[in-house]
Each structure stands twice: as C-alpha cells, then as structure tokens.
Specification:
- The chain is an alpha/beta fold.
- It contains 13 helices and 17 strands.
- The chain has helices at 3-13, 49-52, 61-73, 85-98, 111-126, 143-148, 178-194, 221-232, 284-287, 302-317, 320-339, 369-382, 406-429; strands spanning 28-32, 35-38, 43-46, 103-108, 130-134, 163-167, 202-205, 208-209, 215-216, 235-239, 264-267, 278-283, 345-351, 354-359, 384-385, 387-389, 395-398.
- The protein has a 7-stranded mixed β-sheet with strand order 4-12-11-10-7-5-6, with helices on both faces.
- Helix 3 (61-73) runs antiparallel to helix 10, helix 4 runs parallel beside helix 10 (302-317) and helix 11 (320-339) packs parallel to helix 13 (406-429).
- Belongs to the class-III pyridoxal-phosphate-dependent aminotransferase family.
C-alpha cells in the first residue's frame, strides 16, 4: 500500500486536530537502536524517539525480552482487581528512586491520565480546586490537564473544572537570572496570600518545559517555589513526564535544584521503554486522600509493567542519567559552535538530552515558526528526525534515546547544523 493512500485514509478516519509531521508524512516501519526505517525505504537517525518515549531506542533487548516472557504466559491484561507481580515490583522500585518519604505509587496509561490523577489527589487532600501552574507549560490534552497548561496554543475554549492561575516560568535570557527568580517568588507569594476560601491546593511545574522548546527553569527557581509552597501549606506537583528517568542528566529533572521535595511526582513517556505507562508517586498521606475507590483498567498492566521493570533496571545498571548528562553536554556544545553566527538562530537551550534550538526571523529577531518548520523538513531530507515546539512554534526539539553512541551524537549535530545553515542561507539569499 502506498504512503499516499495511507495519508488519505488517515485524514478520512482521524480528526483534523491530530496532526502529522512533514509536508509528506512519514510512516516508520522498523527500527533498531537510534535508527528507524521509513515507508519511503530510507533510514533515519531518530532524534525525537517517539516524543521521548523510546528511552532505550528501538528493539531494545531488555524490553523485548521482558515483553516476550510476559507474552508467553498468555496474560496480557487482568486489571487492578488482581495482584500483578510486575506491578508490585515496579511500584517498589519507583518508590525507592522517587526520593519521597513513605512513597506510594499509582499507575496509569499515560502522562495525561497521571496528571489528572495528581490534580484529583491534590484537590481532594487540600479540599480546594484552586491550582497554580506555570506560563508556557503543557500538561496533557484532557480537561483538567488542558486547564492547567499555560501554553495558550493548547487551551482550547478556556473552560475549566479548576480555578487556575499562572506564574512565570523560565527567564527570557538564560538559566541563572536570580532577579527573575525573586520576582517569580514574590508573584507566587502574593497569589497564595490573596487566594480566597481554602487557598491554593497545589502548584504543578515541569522542571524543563518540553513543549515550550526544552526550556529549563532558572537555577533555584523550582526550589524557591517549593519553599514558598511549604511555608504556606500548599502542595508541589512535579510533572516529570518528559524530564524523568534520566533524560535531563539527573534521574528526575527537579534534582537540578537542591531542596526540592515534591508531594506528588508525575511520570510517563520513557518509563516502559516505548510501551504505554504513566503514574503518580507521592507521600502516602496525600496518595491516600481519595474518599472513594478508584482504578485504572489498563494502568499498570502486566505487559507494560514488565517492560518498565526491565527499563528501570537497565537505566540504573548502566547509569543512563550520567550518560545523558555527558552526551547532552557534548551535543549542546557541538550545536552551539556549529550554529554560531547564523542570523536565524536565537539560542540552543535545555538540559541533558532534552534540548531545543530556537529560531527567529533574521530581519526582525522575532521568534519564527516558519524557520523552525523549514529546518525540520531539511533535517528529514538529510536523514535526521527532530520535533517542533516553542511558545511560538519556533523551536526544533531534540530528544534522542539515552543509549545513542558518541558517533551518533556527532552525526546528529552535524546534520542539524547543516540543515540550519541551509535554511539560513536560503532565507538570506531571497
């Protein structure tokens, strides 16, 4: 069947708000490590890794073997009404690596469902539906997750089941802006002190804002927010859907700041090596606050949790957070040097192997989605897959598997640099 026919069927059967990348959408038909083969017969170096979900790359032996063992049992699903050995084992491991005292874990099918669970727990525990989030944030596509997301492109009608306020996120010009942190703290303090009724239930924050273009919070910003929340009796929810499991160079993204102790921590994406799994880990007191029973039919199913146990064991045994820190530093350095002097490049940003390149209109200096989209297309032409993001759609997002080799770091940097230079040259010549 031709790709053209599949595109037509996709457009006929799926809603228009479920977009495809590239002018000629791509089907991926096989993969190994950091390389995938497209339906067009070409091989690509994948620096997007299924929106960061393929943490160990494609056809990772530990994940494949764990899935095959579970498949041989004939049990793919039972539900949370039954004991699931791999679910219990995974919960024990997650509780240990969470750093949260007396931690309890609940598994879901996705990051969006995990965010919804955390919001439900926080508002029930605090008996308040007033939540604070960060500007330019993204937390998922469901009703509550959309309500707290600060990126206006994802907010839809603006209707909300929650009372939501937004406070500043990252500074415009770098990660070490302490004046920015002081202003942020003051705004949060004023907001909490002025809150009516039972006050603020929680603040939800991404340590690095992924959809915004891999933008880290300022150094000490999350810790400062955590201090304010603790003093005023509000909860901290760390959304680690994208930043967890070692991607930023720490096991959790919030660990870049000292003194941050989340009440609830949300995870998903790479947790099961590409299979669907999300969850919430938090203090037992908060996690026990629901007044009614609740389940997730497919959350924590035997297949996904078996894959997740294998993934987590591999991350720990091979110290992938350290690998991500080193590889990310090398990749960022290569990109920064390679893109220096290009009028269309604003900056390279991010942490570990969660990076972004922000582009601008060379004539005006205004963030430019058109340039970023052109770079993404040119990357594909050269054999590299990357994503798009940014508050103005002006960023190329780079999130390769944590298992990529040094040679793949160099090759990916060279391809992205070449694509950016070609787009910059074409725009300057017109």
């Amino acid at each position: 069947m031709s790709t053209h026919s599949l595109i037509d069927r996709h457009r006929a059967a799926l809603p228009p708000w479920s977009p495809l990348s590239y002018r000629k959408p791509l089907e991926l038909v096989s993969g190994h490590g950091c390389t995938v083969r497209g339906g067009d017969g070409r091989d690509y170096l994948d620096f997007y890794s299924g929106v960061a979900a393929n943490l160990l790359g494609y056809d990772a032996a530990p994940v494949r073997e764990a899935v095959e063992r579970q498949l041989r049992t004939g049990i793919l699903h039972t539900s949370t009404f039954y004991l699931i050995r791999s679910q219990v084992e995974l919960a024990e491991r997650v509780a240990r690596v969470s750093g949260i005292d007396d931690a309890v874990v609940f598994f879901t099918c996705s990051g969006t469902e995990a965010v919804e669970t955390a919001l439900l727990l926080a508002t029930e525990y605090q008996r308040s539906r007033h939540v604070v989030a960060l500007r330019d944030s993204y937390h998922g596509r469901s009703f509550g997750a959309v309500a707290v997301s600060g990126d206006k492109r994802w907010q839809g009608t603006g209707l909300s089941p929650l009372c939501v306020d937004h406070v500043p996120a990252a500074p415009e010009h770098g990660e070490n802006d302490q004046h920015h942190v002081a202003l942020c703290v003051q705004e949060l303090e004023d907001l909490i002190d002025a809150a009516p009724g039972r006050g603020i239930a929680a603040l939800i924050a991404e340590p690095v804002q992924g959809v915004a273009g891999s933008v880290p919070l300022a150094e000490g910003q999350l810790a400062a927010y955590a201090h304010v929340l603790r003093d005023r009796g509000a909860l901290l929810i760390c959304d680690e859907v994208l930043t967890g499991w070692g991607r930023t160079g720490r096991f959790w993204g919030h660990q870049w700041d000292e003194g941050v102790h989340p009440d609830l921590l949300v995870f998903a994406k790479g947790a099961a090596g590409g299979l669907t799994l999300g969850g919430v880990v938090g203090r037992r007191e908060v996690m026990s606050s629901l007044p009614m029973p609740s389940i997730s039919t497919f959350g924590g199913n035997p297949l996904s949790t078996a894959a997740a146990v294998a993934t987590l064991d591999f991350i720990v045994e091979h110290d992938l957070p350290t690998r991500a820190a080193r590889a990310g530093q090398g990749l960022r350095g290569l990109l920064t040097r390679g893109l220096a002097g290009l009028a269309s490049v604003r900056r390279v940003q991010g942490r570990g192997l969660l990076l972004g390149v922000a582009f601008q209109d060379p004539a005006t200096g205004v963030p430019c989605a058109e340039v970023a989209a052109a770079v993404q297309e040119e990357c594909r032409n050269l054999g590299l897959l990357v994503g798009l993001g940014g508050s103005a759609g002006h960023c190329v997002r780079v999130m390769p598997p944590l298992t990529l080799t040094d040679e793949e770091v160099r090759r990916g940097a060279a391809l992205l640099t070449a694509a950016s230079r070609e787009v910059d040259r074409c725009r300057n010549s017109t």
